[in-house]
Amino acid sequence: MVFRYFFILLFCALTGEMVAQHLVDNSFRFKEGVYTRFEEMKLDAPKYQLEELKGEWIVMEEQYRAKLVLPTDGIGNIDADEIWGISVAGVPYVKVGEDEEKGMLVFSGFRLRGKICYYEKEVTKEKESVIKAYNPVTGRPFRSAVIKNEKREIVGILLDFESGKTAFFELKTVRKWLSDDKQLSRTLEQTPSEELREKLFKFVRIYDDRNPVYIQGG
C-alpha cells in the first residue's frame, strides 16, 4: 500500500512538472508587462505592469511596432534606460531605440518566437561613393572625390531564447545557429545559393519546430 501511494505521488509530481512547461512559439501568449532585462522575458515574468509607464502608447500590431510617447514630466517611477522590452497582447517587443526629436521610445515585436526568435530594427549604414569631374574636351576624369552618405534601412535580428545573444539575420549566422541540427544543416548546405535568400527565414522557422524550447510556469 505504501509503495502504491508513493508511485501515485511520483506520477502526479512528474505530470505537474510537464503541465507547467509551456511551449514557446507564435501561439504562446506572454504575460503583459515591462521587462528590464532579457531574463524576465525568458521566464515570462515582467518586472512592471504596462500601466506603470506614463505616456501615450502607439501600437501597430500588424507591423510589429510599438512606440511610447514620453510625457514631459517623465514616464513614472521607471527610468527609460531601465527598460529592455515590453509585452503587449501576448507578444514581446524589444526596445530598439529612442527618437529624441519626437520624444518616443521605439519597440520592435518578435515576429518569430521559439528557440530562435526574430525581430527587425532600423539601422544607419554608411555608404561611400566616388564622384568624378570630367574634362569637357577630352572626356577624361581629372578630379575625383569620395563622399559618404548615411542611409536608414531595416535589418533582421536573431535572438537566442536560451542565452539572449543576438546577431544579424544573415547566412553565416543562420548556418552557425542551426549547426546542432545536423540533418537541417545538411539540407541548408545542399540548397542552391540562388534559393537561399528567399528560403533562409523558412530554415529558421523549421529549426524552431524541430527544436522546441519551453518556459516553466504555472
Index terms:
37% strand, 2 domains, three-stranded antiparallel beta sheet, alpha+beta, six-stranded antiparallel beta sheet, 218 residues, 11 strands, 5 helices, 26% helix
Q: Report the radius of gyration as a whole number of Å.
A: 24 Å
Largest sheet: 6 strands, antiparallel
Count of the separate structural domains: 2
Q: Can you tell me the residue ranges where pLDDT is under 50 for at least 5 consecutive residues?
A: 1-18
Secondary structure class reads alpha+beta
The percent of residues in helical segments reads: 25-40%
Broad shape: flat
Task: Please give a structural write-up.
The protein is an alpha+beta fold. The chain folds into 2 domains: 97 residues, no CATH class; 85 residues, no CATH class. Helices cover 26% and strands 37% of the residues. The chain has 5 helices and 11 strands; from the N terminus they run αββαββββββββαααβ. A 6-stranded antiparallel sheet has the order 2-5-6-7-4-3. It has a 3-stranded antiparallel sheet with strand order 8-9-10, covered by helices on one side. The protein has a two-stranded antiparallel sheet with strand order 1-11. A hairpin with a 4-residue loop joins strand 6 and strand 7. The two termini are 31 Å apart.
